[in-house]
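Sample 1 of the test manifest.
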Amino acid sequence: MGAAAAYGGVLADALVHAWSHASALAPGAAVGALLLVAALVFGGRGLGVALFLAGATYVGAVAAAGHRIDGSAPLVAVLLLLCGELSAWSLDERWGIRAAAPLAWRRGAGVAILGLAGLAVAALVVALSAVPSNHGLAWTVAGAAAAVGAAGTGIWVARR
Amino acid sequence: MTGFTSRRLPAYGSLAAAGLIAGLALGRVEPVALAAPFLLALVAAVAWREPQVAVRVTLARDRALEGDEVAVTVDLSAPENVDRVELLVPLPPELSADGGPARAVRLRAGEEQTVELQVRCERWGAFTIGPLLIRARDTLAFRSWESEAGEPHALRVYPGEQTLRSLVVPLETQVFAGNQVSRARGEGIEFADLREWQPGDRLRRVNWRATALRGALWVNEQHLERNTDVVLFLDTFGEVRVEGRSTNDRAVRAAATLAHRYLERKDRVGLVGFGGFLSWLVPASGTKQLYQIVDTLLTSQIVHSYAWRGVDVLPPRTLPPKALVLAITPLLDNRTASALLDLRARGYDLVVVEVSPLELVAPDRDAAAQLAHRLWRLSREALRWRYEQVGVPVVTWREDEPLAVPLEEVNAFRHLARPA
């Protein structure tokens, strides 16, 4: 239910942004919704395509609306991620494994932390993109630090 | 441990890549923002390392009766925190675990976690519990590591026994001491007859009342107490099995019950598993023989075979002379029928307990199926008539009856028609 709600939220946001182009976006959104239902019924197959279609619908809507930068993009990104995570959680629970209660709470907390962190990162991306170039030494240093951090994270991940 | 990656991780990677490319292509930040959380998830997934989980499995006991519960204890430990460890105890269909055979727990570094499963023994048999299947996962189930763990443990589930007030008494006894009153006369307890005193008779055997009446010494004669040989003849050529109910299961339960009761009486009991797979135990007495019989019964199974078998294939010592042969059969295979008639022709004291399959076989509604069902029942009646013609009691043991009922029928048959 949570996954479907998150998915619906993304599609609703897309249609709100480009109501005049709803007819062009609706087929992709409908196919995506069907794929999500199929993924939930048939063990997760097609979940990635469903997420891709929702994201494409949103990007298409934003592009069609012609906004310079859509402020709701981080929220949409987190909704997509939550849709994927909640779907996977739902599918995992179908195995009927008797688990200790704290495990469910830990996973819920994990999903929430990942969502919040994703929201923060996406918001940072949007915020940074709004900053004009050559806006001072501080932003240049912040950008360089971010680049170094990203590269370091990549190296750390690759070495594990 | 073998590592696996969740199927959504490649999807997340593709989505992130598509978002970044779309951002570059369209010159917009929104696709990049969409990609950012998925990139973060990828980084989080890769950060997890393979855990080391130590597993120890113990069974509360290695022998149980049907219907018993056996505790399976699994001790888990890990040097580092493991967010979720799932364990599956693979169980055969004859065993079931309360709440299912799978459990999930969290392991803290250096702390031992104990998981206990109550395994219910639904049916007799020899089983192996373990090794377990272990799956360690991260909190969000991005990556998992699976392996087998723990040693296999044998669990023997013995068939449940029924209460029997009396047994089928063999017509002939053997030469060893036992609890069965022999027809022969000699030193015993049961009074048999009076006869005139002869030199060598002991004074304690003199019947003084008869002596006073007749004016000469008369002595008592007693029946001997001897043991008997009983051969349990288990037909394993075929069975009828419907939804966990089987003629072979009941036959094994009956054989175990009879073996226990006859061995209690100090009789010698042997076993012949007559079917596609031939097994036998030479008659012997004692507790060891009981365990051997039950262990052999646990491994008895229906093995389909088209090879003709007669009693000639059995070792001679398996069927000692004057033995009571108790055949437990669903009367489904002609080879068993012929072998039993052959045994009767050789002079064995034969009793056939028919484990009725009729309750398990319901005919279809169409006329042809009902006709076939009637013909099948008629053929069974004809077979029973053939046995009765040669003096063999054939009793039917129905599913809802205790075993004592057909045994009492045998005793009644023997009172009315003593076989030659």
